[in-house]
Write the structure tokens for this entry.
Amino acid sequence: MRCDSRRSLFFAASVILASMLVAAGAHANQEPPAPLVRVVDLDIGEAQTIALSNGDAVTVKLLDLDEVRDTIRNAVRRATVKVEVAGRTVSLVSSTYHLPVTVGNVQIDCPVTQGYTANSSKDNAWGLTKAARIRLWPAGSPWVRPGTFIYPVKQCWFATDTQMANVPVFVDGGELPSNKNIYYHYGLDFGGAEKLVEVVAATDGQVISAGTDVLPGYDDSPVRPRYDVIYVKDARGWFYRYSHLYEIDRSVKPGVQVQMGQRLGLLGKEGGSGGWSHLHFGIKARQPSGLWGTVNGYAFAWEAYQRQYKPDIIAVARPHCISWAGEPVELDATRSWSRCGTIAKYEWTFGDGSTVTGPRVKRTYAQSGQYNEILKITDAEGNVDYDFAVVQVLDKAHPDQTPPTIHAAYYPTFDITPGDEVTFKVRTFRSTQGHETWDFGDGSAEVTVRSDGNAEVHNPQGYAVTKHRYREPGDYIASVRRTNERGQQAVTHLHIRVETK
Ligand SMILES: [Zn+2]
């Protein structure tokens, strides 16, 4: 991620123009344009013919479904569907940071499969009653209509931890071996620095609820008001949930129309956040089952970010991994992306200082702990980006002795130049022992802070705060760690890009 918000100025002008065009369309009493995406739920062996947004008919058949579960929690970690579409056969991995792929004259993805609803703590958040859901677009089509959707946080891509669709929640220490009732995430969690990161409306729309105030008439809807939550309904009929807000903007009241990009509030850790500061952003709509269910917004967020910020390169080392000590883990960077089309080098640096290259690497951990492995990618044009793979390692002999987990974030994430003050926040989970130690990655002295260890989820001082200034332009990797009373360590990293003035 090249975190340069100046690139979004042109975008802002385009949004205004697009909004004017949409407004002009509305005056002519036109129906709002239907979503570009088409959705079909299929059982194995079932075929359906769907009209794409461009009018083309395409037949899609579900041939097979393979769900791989871990041996720790019996959670689905990878679901693969085999699909016949437009006469071709393709395998698709469901969500977990996968984007739609092009097959002949269509683009296709698989947001969810039935295994994710079988041992879910959130019931059937997707409204799926068949084996798998498939989505289709014409080849070359945007995934979400330009001018109708933007990135909902004013923050650099992957600035800190995320929990996107079908990933068991993990940042707050939620991956407990004793808990086989899995909170598979369905919306999109964007981690960020509490009370600092602005949350903006991803779309135009009407506010249905803001805090506990609700517009009447939405009993049959996905709206579930809470003090920290806003619901907005857009012209597609989709309901957007913005959760865990530290603060809701005063202008946001039930019945009010919000504009895409309008400030809704500040990112926080209120409500059922688990204590880590993030925006939970979820989209719900009527599904083919007739039930309300999740619309996976990851591809839309990806596409919106690409339009707004024009990154050259994005490293992807997600989702996190979980394993027993002594058993191999595969780290996978193959979802990384470069505008020029060729990633020339994948370099991993592990916590013990060793390095290895390759898009997919295997590694075994002898000790339990939360590891955070550094991925550096370099493309054919010399552009560089970093991401980090979270690996949670547990001791099979003592599965209840879980290591700590840790979340860090920084602000601002854009347009940092030498001498600028950057705020760093950190909180540890599952341990109140010890303290956090920061290394800002620029040769400066380590700094010790102490978070509350998530002792009280909503403690306003729960995160430990420190500030740092970088003296020179460059890419910096900051690290922060904490060790519990058993000597189990959690570590995490942040990538901070300091621009030339
Ligand atoms: Zn969430």
